[in-house]
Amino acid sequence: MTRLQIENLQVAYGDTYVLNDLNLSVHDGEMIALLGPSGCGKTTLLNALCGFTPVTGGEIWLDKAPITSEPAEKRKITMVFQSYALWPHMTVGQNIGFGLKVQKRPEKEISARIDEMLVLVGLQGRKEDKVTALSGGQRQRVALARALAIRPDILVLDEPLSNLDAKVRMQVRHEIKQLQKKLGFTSLIVTHDQEEAMVMADRIAVLNKGKIEQIGKPEEIYQNPKTPFVADFMGVDNHLSWPVPEGNRSFYFRSEEASLEPLAKYTPIRSYSAHGLILSGKVAQSVFFGSYYRLQIDCAGYSLAVNHCDPILENTPVRVHVPQSALHIFDLNHNPRQTSLQAHC
What we know:
Elements: E1 2-13, E2 16-27, E3 31-35, H1 42-50, E4 57-62, E5 65-66, E6 77-80, H2 92-96, H3 98-102, H4 107-120, H5 136-149, E7 154-158, H6 166-183, E8 186-191, H7 194-200, E9 203-208, E10 211-216, H8 218-223, H9 228-233, E11 238-244, E12 247-253, E13 259-262, E14 270-273, E15 276-288, E16 293-299, E17 302-308, E18 317-323, E19 328-331
Parallel strand pairs: 3-8, 3-9, 6-7, 7-8
Antiparallel strand pairs: 1-2, 1-4, 4-5, 9-10, 11-12, 12-19, 13-18, 14-15, 15-16, 15-18, 16-17
Helix pairs in contact: 4-5, 5-6
């Protein structure tokens, strides 16, 4: 069942449109990750949903009721901010219960809900602590508990993990996903991190210049990007153009999906067939990444990255093979789309 419906949404600052005819349906109990570069409209979309930013055009529907013109306090859409936005002079319990107090709920109900939320986010025994005494991960749990305490219809999270170090970020993102599954709340989360989006989201919407370029399950977005922009943003870190009789094509592939073989001497190779792509080049750089080496290859006028199990000396001639199954091929002469390509050499 569709819980949140966004139709032809537009948000402009002066003559500049940040969101331009954006459409999105969010199902009940679903978590959607909004992924894209800075300035693509992710946070603006959350602010428009919450009523913090006025819209220029389009409609927002919650449970089939229009809320586009409703004030923020009547929308039952709650945001967890990047900065946590906790009250430093309040205790953990006071922060969690703040929204309930604003709603003038009975003290007994507020106290019971605070205790419930503390258990839910694993902060039992910290009710009377000041939030300034907590770690970054614990503060994020308090911010999440405060948002969930008022039982919103929609929970939106604006890069909630960006202020945490890598280890804590991995832990908290799993905790948020587990809570979302347990409670079944409907949610949108903004992130720059494609791994974070794939771990947490039921579906990913990739935004570009105020529009959704592609939306789908994490596996679909990762394995079958529909445009060069989506491929590049989802970590397909190599691309090169390839002239064919029909026009130009662009090949995209990930560094971990290519194989590499040292050669006794350099011989120019540049071919594509049903077996995939084969190129020759020379090693420009070898960088240790722990479980593998990232080799930078000067290859057919391009600088390509290939993962390899062993280091290889600079200037060593090599042959790079990318299997057909690992290639994402786009037609550059028409509207960006993934296309099949017959063998050309």
